[in-house]
Specification:
With 109 residues, this protein is α+β, with helices and mostly antiparallel strands. Helices cover 46% and strands 23% of the residues. It contains three helices and four strands. The protein has a four-stranded antiparallel β-sheet with strand order 1-2-3-4, with helices on one face. The longest helix is centred in the N-terminal third of the chain and has 36 residues. The protein starts with a helix and ends with a strand.
Length: 109
Amino acid sequence: MYQLAQEELLPARQRLSEASEDFNYIEKEVFQLIDEQFEEPYSEHIRNGIVNIGMPTTFLTMAWGHPQRIEKTDTQAGDENWYYKEQEQSGTPTQVVVENQRVIKLKDC
């Protein structure tokens, strides 16, 4: 029975391996495009989970994931406060102030 289960898992392992290779290729291509389009080392920051002032919100999401909560502060201008639970760097919840889809301020809550 154990051998049968192992044999049934082989195709799934193969598909997972192929998907992982595809993901790694796509990630490499995306980071290469980021490096070509921006002067800041955003791809390095994203890989290391670092968020900087001026960073586009797309890269913020790539670095830290989606926030636990978004609070709109000026709906016409698109200004928002993004709230993240504890980040590894500070160990405390973090508020990210966003204006025009860019990070303008980081504050520990």
